[in-house]
Amino acid sequence: MAALEDCYSIARLRAAARARLPAPVFDFFDGGAEDELTLRDNQDAFQRIRLVPRVLRDVARVDLSTRLLGRPAQLPVAIGPTGAVGFGWRGGDVDLARAAARLDLPYALSTSATASIEEIADKAPGRLWFQAYILQDKARLDNLIARALAAGYEGLVITVDLPVGGKRERDLANGLGFPMKITPRNFWQFARRPAWSLDMLIRRPPIMPSLAGMRKVEANRKAMESVAGRNYDPAFDFTGLARIRERWPRALIVKGVVHPGDVDPIVALGVDALVVSNHGGRQLDTGIATLDALPDIVAAARGRVPVLLDGGVRRGSDIFKALALGAAGVMTGRATLFGVLAGGQDGVARALDILRDELARTMQLCGARTLVDISPDVLRMPIEGNRRETE
């Protein structure tokens, strides 16, 4: 396994994470829905856009700082919600939150995290958001939101792109369930990673406190159902979102918007930010890449609320391109997730350092001294039919 100092890209952090985790566990974090076309296209969309640098600017120093939802951040980045992190690195949720706090970045705790709302607030105080999945159990959902409010979380993230779970075929092939467990069918895959497996056997697998007591979720290969979305409410609509807006007095962020026709009714409810997201390609396959969706969402928002982008961010130049297309910032998912899976808090810090270094370098090479200087005139948009072939 590569040392963190040898991980000079997010791709190398991904390789380091893969080297230390059993294949079914890595596949859970790395995989997407069905043929994983959207998963790949999220990254490919960034690669289809080329940069046209401006020159003869004084870029001896560049300023990467910004304001996200009215508060300062050292980077235009929030760490997005990722579930079940503790199965990949014990205590990983806290590690992600602490790394974010060091740079004044928001950290969104997932409903399916392996740390409680209160544990994160106690061990990693900072800019905390709670990401609420819309559970069928509305009493539990209300309780979680009330606990986040009492614990001082500044933002509530409502994920709206998961009415039903995606068909994640890697999870089906691996027979993955929660809690993760070693079975005769997957024994040898876990045996190849003895450090992870012995830790889980001796110390027991972590739990998901926010979902404790709910029915166990197993992959059902016969019914072609993976573990995702099995306890969520497919009837949630604008009325349900309005109810949450009434109950939550702080910043409300809606994550999972890709169609411009959805923007006006959501903004009309008084939300504070939108996140262009397709759940990292983990739900609907062949869905639009988030970078391709971003310009229309920004146009529909008309400056009324900031728009963040989630999905496919692996390079600092990706952040640059998202900002040039009107995003107020990005949410990292797998980029920082691979960091924590590779090396805990140090791995997350490494991932953020990589993105910060690459963003600063891209700004200097494109003649932008501040984030405000990043504009669409340095982008060469893709020509139809000139797309890189996917493998």
From TrEMBL:
Active site: H279 (proton acceptor)
SUPFAM superfamilies in the record: FMN-linked oxidoreductases
Cofactor(s) of this protein: FMN
Domain FMN hydroxy acid dehydrogenase: 2-384
Protein known as: Alpha-hydroxy-acid oxidizing enzyme
One example GO MF annotation: FMN binding
List of residues binding FMN: 81-83, 110, 131, 159, 255, 277, 310-314, 333-334
Family classification: Belongs to the FMN-dependent alpha-hydroxy acid dehydrogenase family.
Positions with a binding annotation for glyoxylate: Y133, R168, H279, R282
Keywords: Flavoprotein, FMN, Oxidoreductase
Species, as recorded: Bordetella flabilis
InterPro entries: Aldolase_TIM, Alpha-hydoxy_acid_DH_FMN, FMN-dep_DH, FMN_HAD, FMN_hydac_DH_AS
